[in-house]
Every structure is written in C-alpha cells, then in structure tokens.
User: Fold this.
Amino acid sequence: MTSPHGHSGPAAGGVAALLAGAAFVAVAAYPVAAARLRRRGDAWPWHRDASFVAGGAALVWAVLGPLPGGPFTGHMARHLLTGMVGPLLLVLARPLTLLLRSLAPGRGRRGLLAVAHSRIASLLLFPPTAALLDLGGLWLLHRTSMLAATQHRPLLHAAVQAHVLAAGLLFTFAVCRLDPVRQGTSGFGVRGGTLLAAGAAHAVLAKSLYATAPPGVPIAAADLHTGSQLMYYGGDLVELALALVLAVQWYTAAGRAWARDRRRRQGEERRPRPRPGGALGLDTRAPVPGGGRACRGTDGRGRTALVRWGRRSPPTA
Assistant:
C-alpha cells in the first residue's frame, strides 16, 4: 500500500472529488428540507439534523481528510468511517421519513412509497441478506487479491468504496428499521441475531488480518497489527451502538404493548356485567301475598323497578 489513501493522480482525485461532492450536497439538502417542515408547523427534532450532518462529515473526511497511522491503518479508518460510523449517523437521522414528509402528495411520493414497500426492498432489507452483502464484501476484499488490485485501479477502488458505503447503509437500515419500509419477517429476534452474527464475522476477520495480511499487499507488521486492532475495537463500538438502538426500540414497543393490554383489561373491568333475569336485569324472584310473583331489578336507565305478574290478591273491603 503506497499511501494512506491508496492512490494518487488525476483519476483518483476526480473520483474522490465526486464522492465528496455528493456527500456535501446531501448534507446541505437535509437541513433545508427539515427547515421547510418546521416552517409549516411540523415537528422535526434538531438532533436528527446534527446526526445527518455528522454522518456526512464523516464520509467527506474519509475521502479527503488525513487518516491516522500507516497505509493499512488509514485504510481501516476509512472502512470504519465509510461503512459503519457514517451509515449509523445517517440512518439515525431518518432521511427517508424526512423525504416522504417533504414531498407533496402526488406521483413522486406514491412512487417512493411503492419502492420502499416493494418486495425487492424487503429482500434487500432482510437482515441476513444485508449482512451477507456487507460482511461478504469485506471478506472478499481482504481475503482475496481484490485489495491489491484496487491499489492500481482507481475506478475499481471507487467502486469498492461505493459498495462499502451502500452495504453499510443497507445493513444499518435493516437492523435499525427507523424509516417506513416493508417490515416482512424482520422482528427483533431476527435483527438481534443477525447483528450478533455479523459482529462475530467482523471480529473474526479482524483477528485473521492481525495474523495474516491481505494477499498481494505488502504491509509492515506494526501497521498491520494497528489497523486490525482499529477494525476490531472500532467495529465493536459501532455494533454496540446498533445494539443500543435495537434495545431502545424493543423497550418502547414492549411498553406500548403493555399499555394497550392494561387499557383493554381496565375497559373490561369497567364494563357492566349483565344480571340474570332478562332485559331488566332481574336478580330475585319470590312469591308475594295474594298469589303471583314479583322480582326487583333495574330498567334501561338504571332505575330500580318492581315487576309483578300472576294472580293478584282480591281487593279488601
């Protein structure tokens, strides 16, 4: 690895400028859309603006900013910023929800909802599928000769970085599920289990890199060890943050379910129970002097009523 950024020259500079420009446009567009919502009276928390701006800044820094350590350590820092930290901050800002609320009712909004609720989106956002695209790409990059090939092909390097970003966004989106998309079978158990499996695969890859460098890439031992440790511990921190988001969602959903069940049980307890004896709620029946029978109950308005039928006693003189 010849430099912390892996490439030099006009082609690499053009690709980096393109990626940084796209991130800058997204960062600038988000606060504008959020401000429009607030002007028309809609609530939109400010911390989401801060989260999106921070995520965009992380992506721009990964492309243009100085990265720490040697070439491989810088490569791992770029991986963490592009594939884990940046996607987490962007997803926490709920950009799809903001876009849907910003669009006026019409064909564009219906089309975006149709895409978000489509079967293809459901398949891509199925947590095991997203994890396979994300972690599978990392294993392919670091355990084959692909990383060595990217050192001499700027376009391939740009494609790999775009895949890391897209796969990281997809995986984070699939685990968090903060925006309105087709849910399918992605319950808390599936998402939590996938997060654990993905974290284990990420940790195993980092440990394997600590022992053996990627094929065809000359890396100093100290740089290799530092970069692998950065991948291992940095990945743990981001995965812990994802687990915290998932735990908060589960706690909120469980609390709402408990409150609904409590309201239902309280409603059943307050509901008047019918008494035996017909429409008046008659509860006793007894013979009365002079023949016949009478009973006491309540009428439709809740008033006490005495109902008498049968043979009545003759009038007295």
Observations:
- The longest helix spans residues 221-270.
- The chain has eleven helices and three strands.
- Residues 147 and 208 are 15 Å apart (CA to CA).
- The beta strands are 286-287, 293-298, 304-309.
